[in-house]
Amino acid sequence: MGMQVTGLAPIFLSGQDVSEEFMIHSYYDYSFFGHPVSICTTHVTTIIVMVFILILALIARHFVLKGDPDNPSGIQNAVEMLIEFLDGMVDNSMGKHGRKYANYILTLMIFIFFSNISGLFGLRPPTADYAVTLGLALITFVLIQYANIKYNKVGAFTGLFKPLPILFPINLIGEFATPLSMSLRLFGNMLAGTIMLGLYYGLLPWIAKLGIPVALHGYLDLFSGVIQTYVFCMLTMVFITDKMND
Question: In what helix (H) or strand (E) does residue 2 lie, and over which residues does it extend?
Answer without folding.
Answer: none
